[in-house]
Amino acid sequence: MRGPRRQSLLIVFLLACIVATAILYLWIASSFFDRPSSRLASRSRESIGLKRARLAFRDQFLDPEAHLLLAEALFSDDRLIDSFYILAEARRFFRPEAFSKAHEKIILKKGLLAQVAAQLQAEALAESNAVKKVGLYTRFIHASPDSYEGRMALRELGQWATPLKPGAETELSIVSREALIELNKARPDHARIFFTLALSYWEGGDRAAARAIVAEALRGRSPGAGAAAMDGVLALAEKNMDRALKRFTRAWNKDKEDGVSASHLFRIHFKQRNDEESALPYLIALYRLNPDHREIEPSETLIRRILDFRRARLLKDARVEELGRHLDGEDASLRAEASLRAAELGAARWIGRLGQLLDDDTEIVRHNADYALYQLAKKDPGPVLAKRQEWLSSTSPLGRCRALGLFADLSPEETLPQAERALKDPSPVVRSLTKAWVMDRYYAREPKGT
After folding, report:
1. What are the two backbone dihedrals, phi and then psi, of residue 297, each rounded to the nearest 5 degrees?
2. Residue 9 has what pLDDT?
């Protein structure tokens, strides 16, 4: 009996080993095959709004609104770094007045109710009765609290509700406070309305009332961003930095439009904790709301410096086989740096992926991918030239024109006829980019290229 039993146990053991080996193999294979498609998988998860914004950005590249719509779609999908690059590049690409107008419309939502706002402001300025003046602003906030005009009206109402000195209530401050209370009852989940009301108590000297309404809101089933932000203000006053950090972080995660929380979070991370990278998302959020924002120096300059240091640190020792996940990643700064590393390491295996990046959303990545391909082609032109027809047939104006520039640099005589044809393309985007990116750079002395 022992012999057959031992044989049975041995067979069971061998079968278990085979099954375990098969499972391990499938796991390794699936993880191996999943890696190259990481960006495709992330693309499939993108919102419809982001996909539409990407298409419009390419088809309407000469329209500043298309740039800012893409920046907003990326910001909404938590792609803050890509959003920053799009916004900063648009700021340089377009005239200041064109950029400002688009920024006010798309990001600040200015002008949605501009005519009503102008009429309201005229009526309010002409009105001497405080009750009627507050009523006009309250009516407008009810109608559109998230528009630029609604936010400005709410801010002014908050200032009216705050007496200049504790206890020095006026008719205007009393009526304004009552209006804020009614607005908060009508829209209890609106963060800015709650925060404005609580702050008017706090700055008006009624600290007990401010603490009371915050405590009541925090006891609710789902405390809003306004309650969390105001509790952060209270925590700062009590020098409780840990609680302030938690509350402001919760508020900002709930409402990325919350400039107050973003400002406090930036200062906590950057100035008190000396952690520049942790401060980065909040600085980008502040820059988005106001591209002229300054923190010690222009915020755009500071953001670029933090990103440059971060990407150099993260990819300093990256090996050739590791570059793929960065080239496929959702961080434009790392895609740009990985492109440079591919050139530095002579990583010809990534030529195909670099070619796709010629059509990236951001100029920094398009530029670096172009540079990397040029450097790789200088060492061995064959693999890059083999992609010539594919890249020059791109349906995207960005990818096609960037490829034209690359091949104009590598083989100018061969590329000139295609560049001249692109100057007559039906798409104004192709014509404009071909002139700026190709003809003016590589064929400025050519009679046909002038």
Report:
1. -140, 170
2. 43
